[in-house]
Specification:
The structure holds 2 protein chains of 2 kinds. By secondary structure, chain A is α/β, with parallel strands linked by helices. Chain A is globular and about 90 Å long. Helices cover about 35% and strands about 20% of the residues of chain A. By secondary structure, chain B is an alpha+beta fold. In chain B, about 35% of the residues lie in helices and about 25% in strands. Chain B has helices at about 10, 75-80, 125-130, 135-145, 150-165, 170-180, 185-195; strands at about 15-20, 25-30, 40-45, 50-60, 90-100, 105, 120. In chain B, strand 5 (about 90-100) and strand 6 (about 105) form a beta hairpin. Chain B is globular, with a radius of gyration of 18 Å. The chains are: A alpha/beta, B alpha+beta. The interface of A and B includes residues 4, 38, 75, 85 and 92 of A.
Chain lengths: ~550, ~200
């Protein structure tokens, strides 16, 4: 008997697929509302689910953004049916008490039409009582493409409650700067690793990754894993296509990793802009930049070495000599002294310059992971990322200009994507206008360099930068300000707000923007053996077999 | 079922004595032998007409005379005064809820009222099912004049439900139709549904 009542009240026994409701009202600006079929349980309908409205001429691919319980008669709410009065309960279900589901049409396609290039925005709404059905496998691949079709597409995961892959269009992804956001522990690094794997595997861009917590290069701890559960890093997956650079070779070696290159930075490579970017971390006064420029005017590239070489008491005299404010310059001097503690800061280089080596790798299409080892302080990260990116960007500007002049395809620089973590430190409203990352984020692909911004506090990032990010991949965010921040520059953001706040804290992300035709919630793909294999990596046994086969081929059995 | 298949002499339960487009009155074949309140009945003719019994009354055959109280039990009366039962008759009234054509029972009023002196029969289970497969018969009840609507709904829905072997989904479906028809009158709905399922 219980089963019978469950069936009547919309139970999970009802088969999946098919009609879930009909459109009852709505508007183009606010989205449409659907009355849920009484045989469907409201608990099976989740925010973020991908559904299709079958209009007369068009199909509207939509996302569920909100659910509400409604009653036609307020008396029912005052005197609800007694517990156990299953009959009345079933009678009221779907007639006097019903569920309204808010849908946001995201994409419109004529019946049978394929997305050719640009998806068409929604310009109309479906008529009354249009059927709403659960998206089917072919709908998903029709909208998001599939890896088999083209190497533009990279499988990110599956829509909620479905098994068909949702792909992002990597060609469009690298056209702009992008962002990956989420509260700490929601799998940002995992999402980043996934996207980077896609870019590397499909050879869409060269990556430069500032790996603050040493999680991309070699193995990384699996979140929530027990004991020795580690996942493979990019170097393990892609071998020679990835070069490991380390700022702290000792730490790398202790972790059992042999970096390809060690990175040192000379004081002469530090520009005034690099120091200004550290304004927050070093608590520099607003006048610090003026003082620094005065020193620079006198000593040019050697300004920092010169400044730090002076002992404390002589700074005032030095200030007087160059016409700077004494207290301001001594404050700057005092604060910049901290840089001398970094082991990677040296007076002169023994080997090749790190940036030259990096450019050489980038030109060859080899991806770079820069590990920070134990230098996990924000100061070191900001300083190094700024200096290296600025110099690489300078070289890219030169290369691009050369290409514009010659228009020779051989001169065309490879597209570079720079991945930075804790992005709000680089791109906060105070510094975004001055640092190199602000410039890269704004000027987009003009110079073939774009950013992949990874951050847990998007509200701290300059709005202008946020609004220019092409694709945003967002795990769970709770803070209202952060949600607001992520949705900056998105039209009709209200529906996505509730979806964002209701994501699972693991393995779920909302993907929206330039690289996907419509926003979609994905259950991200597992980062496991199957994934490794898809990325072209072989299991240990297969590697052994391959090696044996190769050795047999060379030396005979 | 055609006229020929019925043994008219034994199966009819009444004969129409008054007829209109929306209702008819029949005299019961036997005293106190009227079909139960809320049962589905039909008349046979060129177009069979289907009705729902909403009133049963027993009275004197003389319009101007009333039965008199004797202070005896029915058994004693039958032994001592058997003739008085010949002076009484039972009549029942039915509201018309549809008629039959080539496609079977239709839930609309018949083009012509059933003929006077037509015989009245109880409906078969399949006819009851056909007449009650949607909630439209409830509308006929709710729109009818001087009908005890709620009780008639309870009795007729019970009959329809029993014809379907007490299938719960049917009752729920009818409940939903009723809910709409009575304009979300929650008190009324809950009272009716409670009494149907008792």
């Amino acid at each position: 008997m219980n089963d019978l009542w469950n069936n009547l009240n919309g139970s999970p026994n009802i088969q999946d697929g098919g009609e879930i409701g009909v459109v009852t009202q709505g508007s183009l600006t606010e989205g449409v509302e659907m009355k849920l079929n009484p045989d469907r349980s409201v608990e099976d309908v989740k925010a973020g689910k991908f559904v299709v409205i079958e209009g007369y001429k068009n199909q509207f691919f939509s996302m569920i953004t909100d659910l509400s319980l409604d009653a036609t008669n307020p008396e029912i709410l005052l005197y609800p049916p007694r517990e156990g009065d299953q009959l009345l309960h079933s009678v009221l279900n779907g007639s006097s008490t019903y569920v309204t589901v808010a849908l946001r049409p995201m994409l419109m396609l004529e019946q049978g039409e394929e997305i050719v290039d640009e998806p068409r925005p929604v310009k109309t709404i479906p008529s009354h009582f249009s059927k709403v059905v659960e998206a089917e496998e072919e709908d998903v691949s029709r909208v998001f493409g599939s890896e088999e079709k083209d190497d533009r597409f990279f499988n990110m995961g599956t829509p909620l409650d479905m098994d068909t892959p949702v792909c992002i269009n990597l060609n469009r992804f690298v056209e702009r700067s992008n962002g990956i956001f989420g509260k700490t522990g929601t799998g940002k690094s995992f999402l980043t690793r996934l996207v980077l794997c896609g870019l590397i595997k499909n050879k869409k861009a060269v990556n430069l990754i500032f790996d603050m917590h040493n999680e991309y290069g070699f193995r990384a701890m699996k979140e929530g894993g027990q004991g020795n559960s580690f996942v493979k890093g990019l170097k393990q997956l892609f071998g020679n296509q990835v070069a490991l650079f380390s700022l702290d070779p000792e730490s790398s070696r202790q972790r059992g990793i042999q970096p390809d290159h060690e990175v040192y930075i000379t004081y002469d490579q530090v520009a005034v802009e690099d120091v200004i970017a550290l304004q927050d971390e070093l608590q520099l006064n607003p006048t610090a930049s003026e003082s620094a420029y005065l020193v620079y005017a006198m000593y040019k590239d050697r300004w920092l070495r010169q400044l730090l070489s002076i002992d404390g008491p002589d700074v005032e005299q030095f200030a007087e000599d160059i016409g700077a404010n004494k207290s301001s310059l001594s404050a700057l001097h005092r604060k910049l002294k901290r840089l001398e503690n970094f082991p990677f800061m040296v007076n002169s280089l023994n080997g090749a310059d790190a940036v030259d080596t990096m450019m050489d790798y980038i030109d060859r299409g080899i991806h770079i992971v820069l590990e920070f080892g134990r230098q996990t302080g924000m100061l070191a990260y900001l300083l190094v990322a700024n200096i290296l990116s600025r110099r690489i960007h300078e070289q890219y500007v030169t290369k691009s200009e050369k290409f514009y002049a010659s228009q020779n395809p051989e001169d065309q620089p490879r597209h570079l994507v720079i991945t930075i973590e804790e992005a709000h430190k680089f791109l906060n409203p105070a510094t975004a206008r001055q640092t190199i990352f602000g410039t890269i984020a704004r000027e987009m692909r003009k110079y073939y360099v774009s950013l992949l911004v990874v951050d847990q506090r998007p509200s701290g990032i300059d709005e202008e930068v946020l609004s220019q990010l092409g694709t945003k991949i967002t795990a769970l965010l709770n803070d209202e300000k952060d949600i607001q921040g992520v949705l900056t520059g998105v039209s009709n953001a209200s529906g996505l707000r509730s979806v964002l706040a209701s994501l699972d804290s693991k393995q779920q992300a909302l993907v929206f923007g330039h690289a996907v035709p419509m926003p979609v919630v994905v259950k991200t793909r597992d980062y496991d053996e199957i994934f490794y294999k898809a990325m072209g990596d072989l299991s240990d046994r297969e590697k052994m077999e391959k090696a044996e086969a190769a050795s047999a081929a060379i030396f005979g059995d | 079922m055609s006229l020929a298949q019925l043994d008219i002499s034994t199966e009819y339960i009444g004969e129409i004595v008054e007829s209109s487009t929306s209702q008819f009155t029949s005299e019961s074949r036997e005293l106190n032998g009227a079909p139960p309140f809320g049962s589905f009945v039909k008349t046979l003719g060129a177009l069979p007409v289907y009705g729902l019994v909403f009133n049963v009354c027993t009275h004197s055959i003389e319009p101007n005379r009333r039965a008199t109280a004797y202070g005896l039990t029915e058994q004693e009366l039958r032994e001592e005064q058997p003739q008085i039962f010949e002076l009484l008759k039972t009549e029942f009234e039915a509201v018309i809820i549809g008629y039959g054509d080539d496609q079977g029972p239709q839930q609309v009023l018949p083009p012509q009222p059933p003929g006077i002196h037509s015989f009245v029969f109880p409906c078969t289970e399949s006819e009851i099912k056909a007449l009650t497969n949607s909630g439209d018969f409830l509308r006929s009840i709710l729109c009818g004049n001087r009908l005890p609507a709620d009780d008639l709904i309870i009795a007729s829905v019970r009959n329809a439900w029993e014809a379907r072997a007490l299938e719960m989904p049917y009752l729920v479906g009818i409940g939903k139709d009723l809910c709409r028809l009575i304009r979300d009158d929650y008190d009324r709905l809950s009272s009716i549904m409670r009494r149907i399922s008792q």
